[in-house]
Design goal:
The protein is an alpha+beta fold. Helix content is 18%, strand content 41%. Strands 12, 13, 14, 15, 16, 17, 18, 19, 20, 23, 24 and 25 form a twelve-stranded antiparallel beta sheet that branches. Helix 1 runs antiparallel to helix 6.
Length: 508
């Protein structure tokens, strides 16, 4: 009978120990928050870019996986995903896209310099971190091709930045990056370990741990709703119903077009020092702009399309740059030929000759302030517009600038110049979803001239923080103290029982 009170004490202390052990564990899980959506800007090494495209290597680079360019020498990687712990400041985010460098072309058509860097991942903790990348490289001497996944390519310095916080975004600008030994090996030996690389800038959205956001809910994702509002008869809410002469009703649609990569580089580069602004629902996919909410006519029998899209993009900068593309339309005739139209307002008065690295005046033809209505900008081969799974698609079709487009661009490019590829998607059923855009996140991107790095966060909290589940987050040290106290109490109780038992024996 005397043992029962002691048993109750044992059970109470054991429950307290288990609770003290479990609370920190659940708090640690609650502290991990989802990183979903964002971008990373990094030039890898500007001098390497100049070497590849210069007169010695006489090469070029191409973008893969939706990567884009920003400024004069930076590459933009998109769609961040990972985790962030605001209590410890640890951060991990992987990004999509890649860059393929080619140079020193040989007689057999291959290249001595052949290097692809893709899927950068940033891991930060304490006062620094590491940048990992996938690399495919050809060795300079032997020509052997090596493929490596998530190589610790560069060491990153936080410079004393406190990564702890509770905000909904992390933004880090111009983090110093240094080539690691493994990075130097995978870089085909072009640089030695310890070489300074271009700084790394990134921005990423942070959310409470939970279901991962789908691309359709991304601020930079598809955006337009899948399907228009209908009345009970299935007709459009405006009462016009299905367009006469069509056999496939358009529910929605989008055009993706980046205009021209070198034009975007000129706009954001050292000459124009400008940028662009999207209005009317247009969306930025990094390497392209999306003009959504397509409406019009699709003829399934003739495989023709006549559709209009919403949104506008305005390019502004120095040297008289002010150009707006609005009211984009796409037409595809029964011979598979496509034309992209737009209302064009403004002017491009100077251009950068990227091939020779010079700046020169171009003929303007009185373009300043002029407006072209439904100007045919580019032509493309659409092929057979046969629906599949409720979608009619044209994917990255090569394009050429028209004579009217050349005039609209102020003579910056000649008619026939290759522009960025165009993609087109039209949904014929409400269930058909448009292709997703790269997710650039909701935070403004870092720029080449960004200030010192600083994570955007709430003011540090004092005392015990509350997790998303409402359970207090106990520091690890406090948990250890709790367990230690329980252990000490158990030991003291055992000693007391021993003394009591000894006394009872003496009495007997």
């Amino acid at each position: 009978m005397p043992a029962r009170p002691h048993l109750r004490i044992y059970v109470t202390l054991l429950c307290a120990a288990v609770l003290a052990a479990l609370l920190p564990a659940s708090a640690a899980r609650a502290a991990d928050r989802t990183v979903q959506g964002g971008r990373l800007d990094w030039g890898i090494k500007s001098s390497f870019q100049s070497y590849v495209t210069g007169p010695i290597a006489n090469g070029a680079f191409s973008l893969t996986g939706g990567a884009a360019t920003v400024g004069g020498s930076q590459f933009r990687f998109h769609s961040a995903s990972g985790t962030y712990d605001g209590s410890s400041g640890s951060f991990r985010a992987g990004f999509s896209g890649g860059v393929h460098f080619l140079g020193h072309r040989k007689a057999d058509g291959t290249h001595q310099l052949d290097l692809t860097i893709s899927r950068p991942t940033v891991r930060l903790s304490g006062g620094g971190g590491t940048l990992y990348v996938d690399i495919v490289s050809r060795a300079k001497g032997t020509g052997a091709v090596t493929t490596s996944s998530q190589v610790p390519f560069a060491s990153l310095s936080l410079g004393g930045i406190d990564m702890k916080g509770g905000g909904d975004a992390v933004r880090l600008n111009n983090l110093p990056a240094t080539l690691t030994a493994q990075g130097a090996t995978s870089f085909a030996g072009y640089y030695t370990a310890g070489t300074a690389l271009d700084p790394v800038s990134l921005s990423a959205d942070v959310r409470a741990a939970g279901p991962v956001r789908t691309p359709s809910s991304s601020p930079a994702g598809p955006g337009p709703k899948q399907g228009k509002d209908k009345d009970k008869k299935g007709e459009k809410a405006d009462g016009k119903g299905k367009e006469e002469g069509t056999s496939g009703r358009m529910e929605n649609g989008a055009v993706d077009w980046g205009v021209r990569r070198t034009f975007r580089e000129y706009v954001t580069g050292a000459i124009a020092e400008g940028g662009w602004k999207l209005t009317g629902g247009a969306q930025d996919g990094g390497a392209l702009f999306r003009f959504p909410e397509g409406s019009g006519r699709y003829d399934e029998k003739r495989r023709t399309l006549d559709a209009a899209f919403t949104g506008a993009v305005r390019f502004t900068g120095k040297q008289g740059l002010d150009l707006t593309l609005d009211t984009v339309r796409a037409e595809v005739t029964d011979d598979g030929k496509g034309t992209l139209y737009a209302d064009v307002t403004g002017a491009v008065s100077r251009a950068q000759d990227t091939a020779r690295g010079k700046t020169q005046d171009r003929a303007r033809g009185g373009a300043r302030g002029k407006t072209w209505t439904k100007a045919p900008l580019i032509t493309f081969a659409a092929g057979d517009l046969e629906p599949k799974d409720g979608l009619v698609r044209v994917t990255e079709a090569p394009t050429k600038l028209t004579a009217a487009g050349a005039e609209a661009f102020g003579g910056m490019y000649r008619a026939g110049t290759e522009m960025d590829p165009v993609s087109l998607a039209v949904s014929l059923t409400a269930a058909a979803e448009l292709p997703a855009l790269p997710d650039l996140g909701s935070v403004e991107s870092a720029t080449p001239k960004a200030a010192d790095a600083e994570p955007e966060r709430a003011q540090p909290e004092t005392g015990a923080a509350a997790s998303d589940s409402g359970v207090p987050v106990l520091p690890v040290g406090l948990a250890a103290v709790s367990l230690g106290a329980v252990a000490a109490a158990l030991l003291l109780l055992r000693r007391r029982r021993t003394r009591t038992a000894a006394g009872a024996t003496d009495e007997n």
